[in-house]
Amino acid sequence: MTKWLLPESLADILPAEARRIEELRRKLLDLYRVYGFELVMPPLVEYLDSLLTGHGYGLSLRTNKLVDQLSGRTLGVRADMTPQVARIDAHLLNREGVTRLCYCGSVLHTKPMGLFSDRELLQIGAEIFGHAGVEADIQVIELALESVRSAGVARPRLDLNHPGVMNAIVTADPALVDKADDIADLLAAKDVPGLQALGATLEGLRPGSLQALVDLADLYGGPEVLQRARELLPKLPAVGRALDDLERLAGFLANYDISFDFADVRSGYGYHSGVVFAVYADGWRDALVRGGRYDGVGKAFGRARPATGFSLDLRALSGGLAPAMPAKAVRAPWGNEPALAAALRELRSAGNIVVQIMPGQQQSLDEFVFDRELVQEGNEWKVRAIQ
């Protein structure tokens, strides 16, 4: 093994792709700003008890741990920025009313989340705090869809779910409670034989509980799925409220391509409390965007607040787009004469890419293609097209 070999599921990003990712970052942060979102920058590492306070077990499994050499306490390298932003809203800003925050930064996972996933993500997202109404959910979903469209994604598809449906079925049967994580894994894989095998091992399983879980695995598709869910699933109050929330939100989003998947229960880290959503598109193996409502997460920091938002990985988003094309540039000779320096400054201040060729050096570039050159004609420097 060579010493410069990277760890598994970590990768360098080369010039043209790196430039496009950075352009996407700027474009999306500018988009969020015109919607009234304020930018925050949480630290890459925090004390582990702060980073994981009040959040799901799944997030803990994804978080890398290390020892702080100054305090001796355990630190965590963030695996998700949403809880950090919730901490900022609840503990540092401590505002009344609605707060809109956006962010962008690297996160690190202990293991890749999928077969083709990386362990390091460049996560960007937006969150709304302080409004429990459906209006906040509508805005974050519309902004999520606008994010991928502005990046060049054609025909994004919106997938909706509510974790309260599975949770209500599991908590209503004591025989299922200790197996909630196993059930979620089997549902996410739509493994009906696995669910049936698990049910056969459980003592005291109530009649209908196993069939309700099997039905969840088959409840996916268009708006008609909501009616099927009302007919098939147990008449539990929490199930009814969750279906009502989904139906109401879908009514406001009727102009979008919407589907439902009640088995998609591994879409987050366990802290979501209401409607969750994902955005899919042709050309990407997994969801481009994931988000949803997570009311009360800030309670662990002293202030419970309604909250909803979304995040996406810029590296994954960029990776499914058409190959980044080289940018057009001006080729210029090396020199520091005042007239040449003035010409270079003028071109660059106008936004032109100008590359000076070093003496005796052959220029090798992946990101730029020369379509013009700066040449001296008499006492003046002029730009001419390269044939």
Describe this structure in words.
There is one protein chain. The longest helix is centred in the N-terminal third of the chain and has 20 residues, at about 15-35. Strand 15 and strand 16 form a beta hairpin. It is elongated, with a radius of gyration of 26 Å. Strands 1-5-6-12-11-10-7-9-8 form a 9-stranded mixed sheet, sandwiched between helices. A 4-stranded mixed sheet has the order 14-13-15-16, with helices on one face. The protein contains 14 helices and 16 strands. Helix 6 packs antiparallel against helix 12 (about 235-250) and helix 9 (about 190-200) runs antiparallel to helix 10 (about 210-220). The two termini are about 45 Å apart. By secondary structure, the protein is of the alpha+beta class. It has 3 domains: about 1-155 and about 290-325, BirA Bifunctional Protein, domain 2, CATH 3.30.930.10; about 155-280, Bira Bifunctional Protein, Domain 2 (BirA Bifunctional Protein, domain 2, 2-Layer Sandwich), CATH 3.30.930; about 330-385, no CATH class.
Topology of this structure?
Layout (H helix, E strand, L loop, with lengths): L14 H20 L3 E2 L5 E3 H4 L5 H6 L1 E4 L6 E4 L4 H12 L5 E10 L11 E10 L4 H17 L6 E5 L1 H9 L2 H4 L2 H9 L3 H10 L7 H10 L1 E2 L2 H9 L4 H16 L5 E4 L14 E5 L8 E5 L13 E7 H6 L7 E7 L4 H12 L4 E4 L10 E10 L2 E6 L2
Parallel strand pairs: 1-5, 7-9, 13-14, 13-15
Antiparallel strand pairs: 2-4, 3-4, 5-6, 6-12, 7-10, 8-9, 10-11, 11-12, 15-16
